[in-house]
Design the sequence.
């Protein structure tokens, strides 16, 4: 028997790629492989996220053309309902196009710009659907869920083909996607689109499924609240409060590669505590390597009106910290170079050790890929960080790293930063706020 042809589909989110598979290959499409990567990224930084799905047409693709065309059109409308993050303008594209016959509708609807002038004139059609159409719609939604189930099997088990249930490795909990209530399914795809690890997404969904009564499971707001609560419980955060009454200042050292935003974050923290909270703040930089690093911190120190010292050796660091022992908060900037070179790691560790810092915060840029962030966290583990600062969330393609990274690195998040401007765009990490960012896929005010 001839092998069914494989086709490749790409979208910027899982939902988009999946919708293309469904549209092109019909409801029996079989998902063979998935991967995600960043197109145009330079060393894991920048670029656009791409989700790629390789799929083949399934066994039964014999629906008469006109029925299929109608059902595809309805399916797209249904999709817009399932994925409630689909922008309104896309919903408008996906209504039936009353043009030259139903068979032409899918091609016309998917051709960008062809019906642009009519888009806003066609809201999602709320017209009552007769029972046969209803049946077919349910069937279509079931097939989308089946495809998501296949995707999960591909990604969670790293397999290339659908595996019969008795062959699944034990412990690989595959959810019954087909039987999942719609609001829960919508949150499920959101978690996957955010890049939250599949196994964690499954656990969250299974917990909420067990937790909520049937009536609550059919209400989007209850389901969202329950998912947010579960997600928040998975995001460890590190509250940091400067001492105002103790004998010693709170000492915080920021470590991490060059360019992630350490100096900017120190300036934000200094401004927040010195200007807004009126605390006594001092800055120290151990970064003697980077041209301009001292000048940059010095400039911030002058603007904010706090003292700044340079300490390149352990002795200098110990003395520098001692000199500002009357302060409430001491912030230390370190050399940003990647510690591949063991000697440099030892040097940096000795300097950081000499500061006797209460917190060593590893600063990672969320604009990088999660794989790159994990690599950096691994390299800096030798400096024994106690927490994470995730910067540049405003440039992040996926927010899933807010939950994946602290779990993988066993480090709580102390702060997030969401923009370049000092003193704004920094927030102490709060589990509920971070859970909202993950689920919504953006940093809303
Ligand atoms: P360092 O080498 O780790 O000290 O990094 P810098 O503090 O010098 O920052 C490197 C670049 O990242 C600068 O252009 C900053 O303005 C920028 N940056 C820092 N924090 C953020 C942020 O939260 N969002 C964005 N978009 N850029 C940031």
Sequence:
């Amino acid at each position: 028997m001839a092998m069914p042809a494989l086709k490749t589909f790409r979208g910027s989110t899982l939902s988009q790629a999946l919708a293309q598979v469904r549209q092109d290959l019909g409801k029996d499409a079989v998902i063979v492989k998935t991967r995600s990567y960043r197109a145009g990224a330079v060393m894991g930084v920048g670029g656009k996220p791409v989700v790629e799905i390789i799929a083949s047409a399934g066994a039964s693709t014999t629906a008469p053309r006109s029925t299929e065309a109608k059902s595809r059109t309805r399916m797209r409308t249904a999709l817009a309902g399932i994925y409630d993050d689909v922008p309104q303008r896309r919903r408008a594209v996906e209504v039936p196009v009353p043009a030259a016959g139903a068979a032409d509708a899918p091609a016309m609807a998917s051709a960008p710009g062809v019906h642009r002038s009519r888009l806003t004139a066609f809201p999602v059609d709320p017209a009552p659907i007769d029972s046969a159409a209803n049946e077919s719609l349910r069937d279509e939604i079931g097939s989308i869920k089946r495809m998501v189930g296949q995707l999960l099997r591909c990604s969670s088990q790293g397999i290339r083909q659908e595996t019969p249930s008795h062959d699944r490795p034990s412990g690989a909990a595959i959810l019954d996607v087909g039987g999942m209530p719609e609001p829960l399914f919508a949150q499920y795809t959101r978690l996957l689109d955010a890049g939250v690890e599949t196994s964690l997404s499954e656990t969250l969904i299974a917990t909420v499924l067990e937790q909520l009564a049937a009536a609550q499971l059919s209400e989007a707001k209850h389901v969202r609240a329950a998912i947010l609560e579960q997600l928040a419980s998975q995001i460890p955060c590190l509250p940091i409060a400067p001492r105002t009454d103790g004998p010693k200042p709170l000492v915080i050292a920021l470590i991490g590669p060059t360019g992630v935003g350490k100096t900017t974050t120190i300036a934000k923290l200094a401004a927040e505590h010195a200007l807004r909270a009126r605390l006594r703040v001092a800055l120290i930089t151990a970064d003697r390597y980077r041209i301009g690093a001292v000048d940059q911190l010095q400039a911030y120190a002058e603007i904010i009106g706090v003292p700044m010292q340079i300490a390149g050796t352990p002795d200098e660091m110990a003395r520098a910290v001692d000199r500002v022992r009357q302060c409430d908060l001491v912030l230390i900037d370190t050399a940003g170079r990647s510690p591949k070179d063991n000697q440099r790691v030892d040097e940096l560790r000795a300097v950081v050790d000499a500061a006797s810092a209460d917190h060593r915060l590893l600063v990672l840029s969320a604009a990088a890929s999660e794989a790159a962030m994990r690599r950096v966290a691994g390299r800096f583990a030798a400096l024994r960080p106690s927490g994470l600062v995730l910067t540049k969330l405003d440039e992040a393609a996926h927010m899933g790293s807010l939950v994946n990274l602290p779990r993988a690195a066993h480090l709580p998040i102390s702060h997030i930063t969401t923009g370049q401007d000092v003193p704004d765009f920094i927030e102490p990490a709060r589990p509920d706020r971070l859970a909202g960012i993950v689920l919504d896929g953006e940093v809303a005010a």
About this structure: Residues 258-264, 336, 391-392, 394-395, 417-420, 425 surround guanosine-5'-diphosphate (CB under 6 Å). The first strand starts at residue 6 and ends at 11. The chain has 17 helices and eleven strands.
